[in-house]
Amino acid sequence: MNAGIKIVLTLFLAVSAGNVLGQFTANGKIEFERRTNLEKKFKGNDSPWMNKVNLKKPKVETFYLYFNDSSSVFLPSDVVDEDPRMSWMTSKNKVYQNFKSNELLEIMSFWGSELVVGDTIKERTWKITTKRRVIAGYDCRRAIWQANDSTRIYAWYAEELMCNSGPETFNGLPGMILGLATEDGGVVYFAKEVLKDNFDVEKRIPRVKEKDKLTEIEIRKAVTEQYGGRDDFDVKQMLDEMFLW
Asked: Which of 35, 51, 71, 168 is the most buried (most CB within 10 A)?
């Protein structure tokens, strides 16, 4: 092979490699919009509180997810609900996931207070399908998680975003989850914008005291013991909904 051909071949391979690497992103910030259908969420609930709010209008909230190739932090925006009476109707959890150490830290909103979950990262069994759609400019593939007999979750993930994280505690797919929804559309997360930059994930980890951390099993036991005797709501159903996400 003569020198001219070698130079051309070298340049071609360098450009090709640069194009391939340029397609993938390992650091960034994602803005998510969550829409909650309150009529579906509170169907059958005859609490007097239901008469004080407009259930026909979806509740729309903003969250941000900061990520690198091995961890992510999911945080609610600082925007306060326009109607304070609606603040309790949805949760605004803060979630840190470290995929190298298998660490999950979650601060869950619970009846005006907070529960701190310190546990291992949740594992879900996904079924990857051939269906695709574009979200925030990224080609995404659909996957399905059968949470239980009555609940199915759809996720759309982008392989170009290398962190296998997503909204709330979701993860486990070969790329970032940019869309997440219950099958009936009751709760829907969609990415609005993806910013490629080297955001410092570690600086955004919620600060908590080690003594305040409880595992999911410990929280389920404590809440059941405290509220299990009440007749006005199903404690098990409430806990299952809390830990679904």
From this structure: 168
For the chain, how long is the longest CA-to-CA vector? Answer: 85
Question: In this structure, which amino acid lies at residue 132?
Answer: R
Cα–Cα distance measured from residue 204 to residue 216, given in angstroms and rounded to the nearest whole number: 23
Distances (CA, A) of 209 to 29, 135, 212, 218: 26, 37, 5, 17
pLDDT band for position 47 (50/70/90)?
low
Cα separation of the two ends of the chain: 59
Give the model confidence (pLDDT) of 114-147 as tens digits: 899 999 999 999 999 999 999 999 999 999 999 9
φ and ψ at 169, to 5 degrees? -95, 15
The two structure tokens encoding residue 199: 């955001």
